[in-house]
Amino acid sequence: MRTNIPLEEAQNTVLSRVRPGGTEEVPILSALGRVLAQDVRAREDIPPFDRSPLDGYAVRAEDLAGATRATPAALKVIAEVPAGRVSPLPVSPGTAVKIMTGAPIPPGANAVVKVEDTDGGGELVRVFSSLRPESNIARAGEDVQMGELVLEKGMVLRSGAIGMLAAVGVSPVPVYRKPRVAVLCTGEELVDILAFLSPGKIRNSNLYGLAAAIMEAGGEPVLMATVPDRLEDIITQLEQALEAADLVVTTGGASVGEYDLMRDAFRLAGAEMLFWRVAMKPGTPALAAEKDGKLLIGLSGNPAAALIAFEHLVRPAILLMGGRQKWQRPRASGVMAEGFAKGGGPRRFLRVTAHREGGGYRVDLTGKQSPGVLQSILRCNALVDVPAGSSPLQAGQEVQLILLTESEDAE
Ligand code: AMP
Ligand code: MG
User: Which of 68, 74, 190, 348 could anchor a disulfide with 386, C-beta 3.0 to 4.6 Å?
Assistant: First the structure.
């Protein structure tokens, strides 16, 4: 088993062992936020026919030659065509068909003159300007052509994509199944949200924080029973978690203390250890193992450390298992608005708020950076990636950011 490994090695180890799960078909609105499992090509043109983009008169451009306000062209109005109907008559020389936005262009017409350039006549219309052929005609397939690739496998379906699926006639929609991710929290001191806090106890925040993070990554959380630091209990829950889920995440007991049992528990549950300890702060005591093709990832019990290590090690796995192509967050450089006194030591991820200022980002610490402090996660929309062995950060110093709110869907 490798230990004290660089974060990138830990990520590669995890990600080389995951692949997209199965697919399912869901009703179109249930596909919102899901990952498309097949390329979608248009089976027809959109729009399906040549149409008018405005209210006016369908004409032959030739009939308007030389028309001006002083010398209007006069055309006989032979029909009217609202959207959804078809003109009963073609446009012949000297005639016009009154046409509404979205209505099909009648045969014989090669332009549409907008109502504002006419006197709006009902039987005879006077037109005050000339037009080139093709003016104001939206051709069939102007938006999407039959056979065109409109949506790609692996993309996250947002409202625009849902509209497009409807436009090209696709429902139900093929999507990847959500990976099921078990969360198992261990610790003698843990009690659930509403329980009485007897001396020495603390509420289990990881169970819910991580379950929510799993949902944000497109997974389906499976909440396991919380267990004390007892090897047999942990193993029993691990076995159930492996039954119930595609991936297992644990918190607590990952460190070097006497009650830190997770490595033994993974091994005794029959898993092969992949690594223990990652060279980063917070989240150093992360471990990973594999059993029957399923990954088990153990995280520190410290709430902020657990969430940040989840961000680096678990979220990417959930994204790939859920059919996404990309897992990297966008990076950017920013400028520290204040200093950070701790230098030296391993690679560090600082909880910060990054907001655009001038051409770049202004970076403010969100609060205390210790691994047990959850409060500074709240307004955190980015992490500063501080290389190992760095000197303390000064105000005004340029730093590398990992942006947590900007989505990678677009790529
Ligand atoms: P551990 O990783 O078990 O050494 O725990 C590190 C710290 O995180 C200790 O102070 C624990 O009490 C705390 N902790 C562990 N698990 C949780 C949890 N599920 N929710 C909140 N705090 C926790
Ligand atoms: Mg513990």
Answer: 348
pLDDT digits (tens, 9 = 90+) for 195-247: 999 999 999 999 999 999 999 999 999 999 999 999 999 999 999 999 999 99
Which residues in the chain show pLDDT less than 70? 406-411
Dist. CA 195 → ligand 1 center (Å): 17
Contact 226 CB / ligand 1 (< 6 Å): no
- 36 forms beta bridges with 175
Q: Read off the DSSP letter of residue 353.
A: E
301 lines ligand 1 (CB under 6 A): yes
Place of tokens 């039987």: 123
Give residue 313 CA to ligand 2 midpoint distance, Å: 20
Contact between 314 and 182 (Cβ < 8 Å): no
| pTM for the structure as a whole | 0.92
Indicate if ligand 1 lies below 6 Å from the C-beta of 209: no
Domains and CATH numbers, the chain: 2-22+177-321 (3.40.980.10), 24-46+142-176 (3.90.105.10), 56-127 (2.170.190.11), 331-410 (2.40.340.10)
- DSSP-based three-state secondary structure for 187: coil
